[in-house]
Each structure stands twice: as structure tokens, then as C-alpha cells.
Amino acid sequence: MHAVAHIELNAVDLALDLIARFADPEAAGVMLPDAFFDDWLAVADDEARHFLMVTGRLAALDAAYGDLPAHDGLWQAAEATTGDLLARLAVVPLVFEARGLDVTPGMIRTLEADGDDESAAILRVIYQDEIGHVAAGHRWFLAVAAMRGVDPVATWQALVRAHVPRAVKPPFNTPARDQAGLSRDYYLPLVAPGTDPSSQVPPT
Ligand SMILES: [Fe+2]
Ligand SMILES: [Fe+2]
153 CA distance to ligand 2 centroid (A)? Predict the structure, then answer.
């Protein structure tokens, strides 16, 4: 739950960074409509709510955000994509948040098996909201790719190979990814040889 709190806090910053950094049409390379900013502000609001739910649960468990070291991978990927809106959208919502859809069902099962139904219930709320975040990421990735006149699938694969080549790995949560619009033709070609791309996470 401490690791989740860290991810949620980073996610607040990342959603707001997308707004602040790419409000300048020169930085974005395109003129983004108001709906872009509305969507990412709503995502930032969700992420703040997630952070507060998780830190509330940590407090009930006599813990606090900051008690443990945290992983910096998400922020490093964000820094690697500061110069390119399309790369940022390819990596943050469509690799890392999509990966969250793959791993969260297993975390929920582990917590429930351990008798921590309160934490599991929080992760169920986060899981549902995150499907919407991946969907927003995909919607805007498609829109910006269209504005730039590039093929979305080939461009996504090139950007992911350039920035986070080993981050796409099975088992996948295909139903949740499909619900967000992230179809298999995007990510299956990036699965490393020797791993089974059809491997699926069991449903929650
Ligand atoms: Fe979140
Ligand atoms: Fe999110």
C-alpha cells in the first residue's frame, strides 16, 4: 500500500505536468483543445483521491507515506519523455497505467487472501478509475497522432521501444486493456521472445 501511495502521488504530478508542460503549443507541437486539459485535470483529481484513500488506509495501519523507500521508475520515464507529448502519452498512461491494470487484480487477491478487505476495496475503486485513465491516454494519443499525421500503432511501438523497451510484458489483462481501447495489435509485437504473449491475468 506504501508503493501504491507513491504511484498515486506521482500520478497526480504527472497529470498536472501534462497540463502545464504542453499548454504551450510550441512544446506540444500541436494546438490542444480545452477537452485535453479538462480530461487530465479530472485524472489529477482522481489520482489525488486515490492518494488520500491509500494514505488514509496507511494511517489506519499505523503507517504513513514516507516511512519506506520508494521506486523511482515512473518518474524516470516521465523525465525521459519531457520533450515529446506523444512519447509521454505513449509511456505514462499506455505503458505504466496499463501495466497497473495487469497487476492490480493480483494485488487485490493477495490482500483479500490476507484478510485485508479494506485495502482490497480501495484497490478495486482505483482499478475501475484507472481503466478510464488508460482510455483517456489512448484517446489523446490517437488524437495527437492524427494531428501529426502519423500511424498510431507503429508510432506507439517505436516510442515504447525507444523509452521503456522492457516494460511491456505478459501476463496481460486483455479485457481491461480492450475496455480502454488499447488493443493487442499495439502491445503484443513488443513482447520479448521466449515469453508467452497469450498469458492472461485471472479476472478479479
Ligand atoms: Fe490512480
Ligand atoms: Fe491513473
Answer: 22
CA dist 28 and 48 (Å) reads 25
Tell me the per-residue pLDDT of 70-106, one tens digit each, with 9 for 90 and over. Answer: 988 888 889 999 999 999 999 999 999 999 999 999 9
Residue 73, pLDDT score = 84
Determine the distance from the C-alpha atom of residue 90 to the mean position of all C-alpha atoms in its chain, rounded to a whole number: 10
Q: Which domains does the chain have, with CATH numbers?
A: 2-190 (1.20.1260)
Which of the four pLDDT bands, split at 50, 70 and 90, describes residue 181?
very high
- From the CA of 194, how far away is ligand 2's center (Å)? 30
Burial of 137 per CB tally in 10 Å (0-12, 13-18, 19+): buried
Q: What is the pTM of this model?
A: 0.95
Q: Which position has the grid cell 482499478?
A: 127
Three-state DSSP class for 164? coil
Task: List CB contacts of 201: < 8 A, sequence separation 6 or more.
Answer: 102, 103, 105, 106, 171, 172, 173
Q: How far is the CA of 181 from the centre of ligand 2 (A)?
A: 15
Distance 133 CA to ligand 1 centre (A): 8
Q: Residues with Cβ < 8 Å from 67, sequence gap 6 or more?
A: 2, 58
| Ligand with the closest atom to the CA of 131 | 2
Q: Which ligand is nearest to the CA of 137?
A: 2
CA of 100 to the centre of ligand 2 (A): 9
Q: What is the CA radius of gyration of the chain?
A: 17
